[in-house]
Amino acid sequence: MKVKSKGARLALLAALFIASTAQAADALTIDVHRDANCGCCKKWISHLEANGFQVIDHVEHDMTSVKQRLGVAPRLASCHTAVINGKFVEGHVPAVQVIELSKRNDLVGIAVPGMPAGSPGMEAGGTLHAYQVTGLTKAGTDQVIADYPTK
Ligand SMILES: [Cu+2]
User: Fold this and answer.
1) What is the pLDDT of residues 26-57, one digit of tens each?
2) pTM recorded for the entire structure
3) Distance from the alpha carbon of residue 137 to the mean position of ligand 1, in angstroms
4) Is 118 left (phi over 0), alpha (psi -120 to 50) or beta?
5) Residue 126 alpha carbon to ligand 1 centre in Å
6) Distance from the CA of 107 to the center of ligand 1, in angstroms?
7) Which candidate among 20, 63, 118, 122 keeps its CA 20 to 30 Å from the CA of 111?
8) pLDDT digits (tens, 9 = 90+) for 132-151
């Protein structure tokens, strides 16, 4: 997706702010599966890297089968699908929740379904839609991990 330069500048400022204030996470390695034409996926990767992640980028031809293989419930689907410590990260999940997931053993994955404006990698000129980070438990139920209200 195209981003206006003002939005890009704001995103950069936000990324710099997060990078300078976040605790130095030890080298967290994450695999990201994405379609070749996904621009917002690349922006999400930049968000992770700005927060200390080491990203292994996988360009895929069939994201639907990748999601099936990794256990992403269709109701949770977004664009890219990542894997950290054997658990999936679906969509534009903020780095802080990815770090949380890496330490939790009660969840098989977390997701930001769809592509809400204002989530990391989906900056759109200051538009902020409300969204939640949803965890998928081992029992197959959804659990709200974080709530980002509209501003
Ligand atoms: Cu996206």
Assistant:
1) 569 999 999 999 999 999 999 999 999 999 99
2) 0.81
3) 23
4) left
5) 16
6) 22
7) 20
8) 999 999 999 999 999 998 86
Residues 6 or more apart whose CB falls under 8 angstroms from that of 40 comprise 1, 79, 92, 115, 121, 122
Integer Cα distance of 141 and 49 in angstroms: 30
CB 115 within 8 A of CB 78: yes
Q: 1: CA distance to ligand 1 center in Å?
A: 9
The Å distance, Cα 34 to ligand 1 centre, comes to 9
Task: Decide: 130 and 109 in contact? Cβ < 8 Å.
Answer: no
- The one-letter amino acid code at 94 reads P
- Amino acid letter, 56: I
* The residue type at 121: G
